[in-house]
Amino acid sequence: MDIQLDVKNLTHVFKTGEGIRDINFQIKQGELLTLLGPSGCGKTTILRSVGGFIQNQQGKIIVGQEDITSLSPEKRPTAMVFQSYNLWPHMTVFDNLAFSMKLKKMSKDHINERVQWALRLIRLENTAKKYPSELSGGQQQRIALARALLLNPKVLLLDEPFSALDAKLRYELREELREIQSKENLTMLFVTHDQEEALSISDRIIVMNKGDIEQMDSPRSIYNEPNTLFVAKFIGKMNFIEIPIADHKASIGNNMYHFSHTNSSKLTAAIRPEDITIQEGKGDWLASIKKIMILGHYAEVTLETEDGILKTFVEKRKLESLHVHDQVSILLQDVRFFEGNDWIKYIKKEELPTCITV
Amino acid sequence: MWFFKSVSKRNLMEFLLVTLFCLFFFMPLVNLVILAFSGEWQYPNKFPTSWSLEWWKFVLENDEVSRSIMLSFSIAIIVTILSIIICIPAAYAFARLQFPLRRTFLFSFLLTNAFPKMGLYVAIGVLFYQFGLMNTFTGIVLIHMVNTLMYMTWIPSAAFKNVHASQEEAARDAGASPFKVFWHVTLPMAAPGIIVASIFTFLSSLDEAQGTLLVGIPDYQTMPVVMYSIIADYPSTAGSVFSIILTLPTIILLLAARRFLGADAMANGFQMK
Ligand SMILES: Nc1ncnc2c1ncn2[C@@H]1O[C@H](COP(=O)(O)OP(=O)(O)OP(=O)(O)O)[C@@H](O)[C@H]1O
Ligand SMILES: [Mg+2]
């Protein structure tokens, strides 16, 4: 597939010293790439650089075959949807949508047809005569999306377009966005700080931290195989335990992990709650139940081990056999180790002879 | 008496206050109108004993008066146009750009209105002497603009600030050059504020007497200047006829402004929360 957007060595540092440094990524035709990261990590800065609203940065931005680095926003083949204040309040919805086509002096019939098409796409057919003030927040953002689509952009840029809306509406709109995106085969660069949103709609995710890219991967890999401790902490729920390391070996319960080389004396083990199973009989590790919190069809169980606290999820029907203060054995499906911020791979896992049974 | 029953105590207070305000505000106006049409009105009588249009005829047929009306309106129009040309770019700069001494500049506009006017005018008058601007049309226009610069910068500047950067950027994105963005988005969105400021400018130029008296004497006599002499030289009826003529444009323009002020409030309502 073709590369639609190619960002090379993009650097833009503000006077304050914050900004983005040496950003490299590509988006394929028809792909939805999400920039995800905590507030202030530089997501908007990247997006605005691509849109042309920040200029004089170092690096290159190429759309299709064309180097657009030095073009002004009105000349770029990109379209942007802002977080809010997208629409022009003195124009009707129709005029908002028709603005770009009127500038290009297209024929009235053509404009009408295109506006109708866009309104159908976002399912707001009978709002053409209304003013933006007469629409709800969600409708306004959909109109803004339609207006951006009418520019026929090669790359569509969205800066947290749904973040001002309530959770339910946000959910609906991102479903709708994903639908439109695949129907129209749009190439999109999407910014959010909501990881659920990112995981659910993206083809690929870039996780950012303080102006740098931490990891660029599919949602599944970002979740299952975080490359850095930062990503592991930022995405989803995760248990972290500090464990000492000696002689390139570290042990959790009765499992011994071997590493080829380590520099520090401590590692951080990261375990997803769903990778911990509580069982009767033989297990990896001994724990006592500290707390059980019912959260609907499942419960969050807090376990105390000799190395630290772990949290896991248990289905409702398995809960009956569990009581606070019970001694249980637990099984670890997957453990990921980090040395400092970086993921470190173990080369061997060895079961110690000391058997744990409850 | 459903009306009084339906109003609570607090509403009653409001009602009384509004009534008082109306009396205070409109009594002199009513009195003025009655006086303007009266023929004979001696002290103990509550109303004139005879009505007449005599002084209307006098004022309207007086050459000096009609010339002063023409002069006042042409000055006001020119002052308004010039103020718009000078102040709109300045207002936009104050709203959008960060430059050194920005606050000082804004403050200096206030300063011209903080001094006692006459002192300022005398100081300006001295300057005008040196440049040969005394007793000239240009001189009067300039001295009027000393006052109007403030409205014309502050009010539109606030209006420009209400236009969000992303609304301008969205228009750039849609393919508009910076000038077209200003023309199609920024200016129309700030228009209510600019219109209101222009009306204020127009009216304040129409009303200005002190500076005009100082700079325009003896050849340039505007409405308010002429009114001083009419009030001094003729019975009070002539004065009231003249004040009605002077107030008329104010009332008409304020009614027009009210329409746009309503539009302004609407524009604020447009913004997404
Ligand atoms: N115009 C500017 N001048 C100076 N510093 C800026 C400017 N714009 C952004 N910054 C700084 O650059 C950093 C990155 O900002 P950016 O807006 O890209 O963050 P973000 O990831 O979009 O955050 P958020 O999720 O809060 O929108 C921030 O620390 C911010 O303070
Ligand atoms: Mg942002």
TrEMBL record, chain A:
UniProt keywords, alphabetically: ATP-binding, Nucleotide-binding, Transport
Occurrences of domain ABC transporter (ranges): 5-235
Gene Ontology MF annotations: ABC-type quaternary ammonium compound transporting activity; ATP binding; ATP hydrolysis activity
SUPFAM superfamilies xrefs: MOP-like (SSF50331), P-loop containing nucleoside triphosphate hydrolases (SSF52540)
Enzyme class: translocase
InterPro entries in UniProt: AAA+_ATPase, ABC_SmlMolc_Importer, ABC_transporter-like_ATP-bd, ABC_transporter-like_CS, Mo/tungstate-bd_C_term_dom, NA-bd_OB-fold, P-loop_NTPase
Subunit record text: The complex is composed of two ATP-binding proteins (OpuCA), two transmembrane proteins (OpuCB and OpuCD) and a solute-binding protein (OpuCC).
Protein name, UniProt field: Carnitine transport ATP-binding protein OpuCA
Organism encoding this protein: Pontibacillus litoralis JSM 072002
From TrEMBL, chain B:
Transmembrane residue ranges: 12-37, 69-94, 106-131, 137-160, 181-203, 237-257
Locations listed in the record: Cell inner membrane; Cell membrane
Main location: membrane
Record keywords: Cell inner membrane, Cell membrane, Membrane, Transmembrane, Transmembrane helix, Transport
InterPro entries the UniProt entry points to: MetI-like (IPR000515), MetI-like_sf (IPR035906)
Annotated ranges, domain ABC transmembrane type-1: 69-257
Domain of life per record: Bacteria
Membrane disposition: Multi-pass membrane protein
GO BP annotations listed: transmembrane transport
GO cellular component, one term: plasma membrane
Protein family membership: Belongs to the binding-protein-dependent transport system permease family.
Protein's UniProt name: Polyamine ABC transporter permease
Organism: Pontibacillus litoralis JSM 072002
